[in-house]
Design goal:
Layout (H helix, E strand, L loop, with lengths): L4 E5 L6 H15 L7 E5 L5 H7 L5 E5 L16 H6 L4 E4 L2 H6 L4 H13 L3 E6 L3 H5 L3 H13 L4 H4 L3 E4 L13 H19 L1 H6 L2 E4 L7 H5 L6 E4 L6 H8 L3
Parallel strand pairs: 1-2, 1-8, 2-3, 3-4, 4-5, 5-6, 6-7, 7-8
Helix pairs in contact: 5-7, 7-9
Bound molecules: 2-phosphoglycolic acid.
Length: about 250
């Protein structure tokens, strides 16, 4: 059975003090509740250890937003999957469109990052999605297929079973322009069929596929009500408990 997950992606936001306040605030409000989904927060590297120590990580999983494509060594400024795992974080967001576009992360680099995450016991939240021109040209199915094939198709069935996918149309990220639930359902079903052709129907059915791109309290219910939408990766609306909680409660 696949899991439902609501994951926040804080991006380049919050000082350590602000991040701790946000994370512990969320921890507090979730104390008396039993959400019908797993909850994850993707926080800056500098916050990982402190946040993992300050909250109940059985209730809120902690994610990094990137990791190095190297195991260790002379790579100044990089943070490895092993380092992330050593903080108590259990997830890592990989292949976000901002990393692909601004930091030139190629499918090959991302494949290495996925492998290193899995080797270190982290759950990759692997992001895919097309840009506006690709959608307008009707190429979005092809684009996501290629992204999945290039970075995930070398995985063993056992490792693939640990991967979470986040479909994030780039034109919907931070723009306030959400994909309709019909658009999300259509492409999620397509992604699942692509996964089924490679890994088998059962593995594809068990794979959690999140939607991301301007998801908020107003549209979350509609999106997660669709059979192939198993939750969300939320940027802007994850930066306050007041905005994030109703998305968790959309299930
Ligand atoms: P957004 O970001 O919710 O602010 O659109 C989503 C994401 O980039 O993961």
């Amino acid at each position: 059975m696949r899991k439902n997950i609501i994951a926040g992606n804080w991006k380049l936001n919050t000082t350590l003090a602000e991040g701790l306040e946000l994370a512990t605030g969320l921890n507090e409000v979730l104390k008396g509740k039993s959400p019908k989904c797993d909850v994850v927060i993707g926080v800056p590297f500098t916050h990982l250890a402190s946040i993992a120590a300050a909250i109940d990580t059985r209730k809120i999983g902690v994610a990094a937003q990137n990791s190095a494509d190297k195991e260790k060594g002379a790579f100044t400024g990089e943070v490895s999957a092993a380092m992330i795992a050593s903080t108590g974080a259990k997830y890592v967001i990989l292949g976000h469109s901002e990393r692909r576009a601004y930091y030139h992360e190629t499918p090959e680099i991302l494949q290495t990052k996925v492998n290193l995450a899995l080797a270190n016991g982290l759950t990759p939240i692997f992001c895919i999605g097309e840009v506006l021109e690709e959608r307008e040209a009707g190429k979005h199915f092809q684009v996501v297929d290629k992204q999945v094939e290039a970075s995930l198709f070398e995985l063993s069935a056992e490792d693939f079973a640990k991967v979470v996918i986040a479909y994030e149309p780039v034109w919907a990220i931070g723009t306030g322009k959400t994909a309709t639930s019909d658009q999300a359902e259509e492409i999620h079903a397509h992604i699942r069929a692509t996964l089924a052709a490679k890994f088998g129907a059962k593995a594809a059915d068990d794979c959690t596929i999140l939607y991301g791109g301007s998801m908020n309290a107003g549209n979350a219910k509609d999106l997660v009500s669709r059979p192939n939408v198993d939750g969300g990766l939320i940027g802007g609306a994850s930066l306050s408990v007041a905005n994030f909680l109703p998305i968790i409660e959309a299930f």
